Amino acid sequence: MTARFVVDLAALEANVAQVRDTVAPAEVMFVVKDDAYGHGIARACTTVYQAGIRWFGAFDVRTATAVRQVVGAHARIFVWIAASPADIEEVVQHDLDLGVGDRALLQDVAGTALRHGRRIRVHLKVDTGLHRNGVRLDEWEEFVTRAVDFHRSGQIEIVGLWSHIAEASDAEDDAAREQFERAGDILSRAGVTSVMRHLAASAASFARPEFRYDMVRVGAFCYGIRSAGGVNERELGLRPAARLEADVLSVAADQVSIDVGSLDGVPSLLSGRVIVGTPGGTRRVIHVGESESMIESWPGADVGETVLIFGPGTHGEGSATDIAEALNTIGEEVVVRVSPRVARLYESGDARG
Ligand SMILES: *Cc1c(COP(=O)(O)O)cnc(C)c1O
């Protein structure tokens, strides 16, 4: 198979610099769920660590542990799901920062800390409307009281206040932010005043300065994946860091075949709906099969030539988000579904103008 997912580490680095410039003085947490949005944790984290990123955000403990192995002891790694007592043990062992959004977990964390004689750094999560864990505002005060008790007795250290927002409409985000503010006031009144507050992900971190607080948690934009229906990459100052390409296997009169298909993660729904980049310019996808796809031909098309399925197109071919929009989904989804059996290659930018 010639299909390959090529990550331009220089583009990743430039995107991270752009994100940091845009949100400064807020700190940037680099979000790495789904194997760094399919870009590969090891290379992605090494690159951004060297570029100065010191906060990493992982959905699960396994991922957070993998990040720790890559970036060493001096980075802060925030993990927002601890699903079991074993997970909390890992949090201690790998010196992770843990998001805590329910009372039972808070209790377990305090218990684990006591057993180890080690303080666990926690970021308290308030639910501001997404209902994906987090403590509701009407239970927040009681939750904070318990957390502050554990903080005073030295089992936890409350270092953060956070929530997650939909970033789908300004009105909903504003309502969420109002709740976030109220949660922050309650926490301050309980005597906890020097916490890092973090609320925004990619879209709000660029578009809504008042959502930046002390830190933003950014995944998509660091990888150069713009929001579906949103501002284009150029206006954001970003560039897709990854591209998916494959070589021409055979040439017929009016179409060529490439050896990548739905089993490799190219959505079969793309048939007839998107354009891809070819040496002869942009061409329509005619059909996506399981392991081969048919593309409109171009004059002089030849076996071995490269077709760009998505990436930083220079002639109007699509980014992952362009493809996502044709499917009514988001760019992350398109990138992340590229199968692990597609080779990951890394380059540092200067090879390709
Ligand atoms: C995925 C995620 C982010 C990053 O979102 P992007 O839109 O990719 O920047 C931030 N915070 C949480 C809790 C997430 O799940």
Please provide a written account of the structure.
The protein is of the alpha/beta class. It contains twelve helices and 16 strands. It has helices spanning 9-23, 33-37, 41-50, 61-71, 85-93, 103-116, 137-152, 170-189, 202-207, 233-236, 320-327, 331-336, and strands at residues 4-8, 27-31, 55-58, 76-79, 97-100, 120-125, 156-162, 196-198, 215-218, 242-251, 255-258, 275-278, 281-288, 293-296, 306-310, 343-347. The strands form two sheets. Strands 1, 10, 11, 12, 13, 14, 15 and 16 form an eight-stranded mixed beta sheet that branches. Strands 8-7-6-5-4-3-2-9 form an eight-stranded parallel beta sheet. Helix 3 crosses helix 4 (61-71) and helix 5 (85-93) crosses helix 6 (103-116). The longest helix is centred in the middle third of the chain and has 20 residues, at 170-189. The protein is elongated, with a radius of gyration of 22 Å. The mean pLDDT is 94. Bound molecules: pyridoxal-5'-phosphate.
Topology of helices and strands:
Elements: E1 4-8, H1 9-23, E2 27-31, H2 33-37, H3 41-50, E3 55-58, H4 61-71, E4 76-79, H5 85-93, E5 97-100, H6 103-116, E6 120-125, H7 137-152, E7 156-162, H8 170-189, E8 196-198, H9 202-207, E9 215-218, H10 233-236, E10 242-251, E11 255-258, E12 275-278, E13 281-288, E14 293-296, E15 306-310, H11 320-327, H12 331-336, E16 343-347
Parallel strand pairs: 1-16, 2-3, 2-9, 3-4, 4-5, 5-6, 6-7, 7-8
Antiparallel strand pairs: 1-10, 10-11, 10-15, 11-14, 12-13, 13-14
